[in-house]
Amino acid sequence: MSDSATLSSPVADTGFAPSRQLAARPLPLAIILLVAAIAWQLPAPGALSQAAFHTAIVFIATIAAIVANVMSTGAIAIVAMAAYCILRPAGEASAALAVNNALVNFNNALIWLIVIAFMIAHAFSKTGLGRRIALLLLSRLGQSSLRVAYCLGLADFLIAPATPSNTARAAIISPISHSLAQTINAKDRKLGQFLMSSSSAMNDASAVAFQTGFAGNLALVGIATTVAGVSLSFTQWLGYLLVPALALLMLLPLVLYRVIRPQTQQTPQAPAFAKRELAKMGATTRNEWVLIGVFIALIVMWVGGNALGIHATGAAFIGLSALLLLGVLSWDDVKSEKGAWDTLVWFSVLMGMAEHLRNLGFTSWVGDGVSEGLSALLGASSPMLLLLAMMCFYLFTAYFFASATAKVVALAPVLLGALIGLHVDPLLATLCVAGVTNLGCNLTTYSHARNPLLMGYGYHSDSEWMKLGLVIAVAAMAIFMSSGLLWWRALGL
Asked: Within 285-359, where are the H helices?
């Protein structure tokens, strides 16, 4: 499943639906096209080249269409690519060159790593291994509602390295959360609310821990390399971010437990439920054992890739090949993984345009402008204070994006450029952006595709979700930044 929201966005709730003649929402589409057309006629501001300005107009219009939910994200990307080919905003000398520039990121190794990881993640749901892991933990450790929440969070962590879709992990964990809430005490609505909210928060915490735990993480890796000169391997990401992610795992369920206060505290029914479900599943199947072996091999290749001479994307191809050869996945499974192919299209288009903006100097121009503005506003403030201010701003931009990955592609280059201009260490800036990217996904009902899925169980109203989402975001920000800064200082950063 894709991590771009499939229900509503701030604009999608206005009541304007696609017309019968047009498979798009006409009012926001017309507004975006009108503004873009007017901007196109204007001269480039400041020292910005006209090519950079025109490319920025196409990119910003594309992001605006995604935020306004004009069409599905993949369809918007195709339209944007067609517009790029026609308008040649970067000043391409020929139509062929414009097409090549529009397609430039379809051979991006990091994007293909995401696509293949989506397919490998499908094996966890197909074989039932993800569900078995969660039930095994519950059968041994689920004697209280708080411990149940920890078990569900740990299960999410265990499958995250090979599952770059938070929504896919939520689709594995949330039915177990719901079944437990109904089995333990169906009358205690707050119990179900606590388990769902905690599962959602842990879903983001596991994405912080692993480079391959969220598609946007890999986008950030590419952006950080070009904008900040920072290269992060799977092992380096894990070394820097696992400790703050574990702090989130340990503390967020406790915060939610204190805030929601479920009536049911002891849950002797949970281990019994898990054991019954495991009995129904039967013994671990041959395909599950194969998947376990491939999963371990993938982690070894991702961690030891440099020593083994294997690129992370090459390792993913090896893992997928093994699952196909050994019959865990079929080619039909690969073809039917719509989230993977959808991600390939829209992610490649957005990353390609973002790369053109960097090459044309737009990203550094905006970053310099933001850093100069902050310096003028906050005076001689320390780089650390400026970093915290920028991260608070970044956290709450989730209110304006229906896709966390689109948010990374749109904002991370500007944030990194601005922070570097404010004399923040490039690696420190990258690590902070990496964590905070994943922490605002619960702020609204539309800021992540997972949220409508979890709300569908009926434990939250819209207002309850957004109030608890604010609690999660603020608490997670405080936990991540404090534990992260302490850990990175201990590492000598």
From this structure: 286-303, 305-308, 312-325, 331-336, 338-359
Could you tell me if 211 and 222 are in contact, meaning their C-beta atoms sit under 8 angstroms apart? no
DSSP 380: S
Residue 19, pLDDT score: 54
Please count the other Cβ atoms lying within 10 Å of the Cβ belonging to residue 493.
13
Q: How confident is the model at residue 285 (pLDDT cuts 50, 70, 90)?
A: very high
pTM here is 0.79
Tell me how long the chain is: 493
Distance between CA 13 and CA 143 in Å, rounded?
41
Name 47's Cβ contacts closer than 8 Å, sequence gap at least 6: 365
Buried b / exposed e over 69-85, threshold 16 CB at 10 Å, is bbbbbbbbbebbbebbb
Distance between CA atoms of residues 117 and 409, nearest Å:
19
- Quick one: average pLDDT of 56-69? 88
Helices and strands (H, E) in the chain, number of each type:
23, 0
Q: What are phi and psi of 278, to 5 degrees?
A: -65, -35
Q: Given CA atoms 248, 251, 257, 260 in this order, what sign does their dihedral have?
A: negative
Pairwise CA distance, residues 105 & 92, whole Å: 17
Crossing angle between the packed helical segments 404-421 and 50-67, to the nearest 10 degrees? 140
For tokens 């596991």, name the residue.
206
Q: Which helix (H) or strand (E) holds 228?
A: none
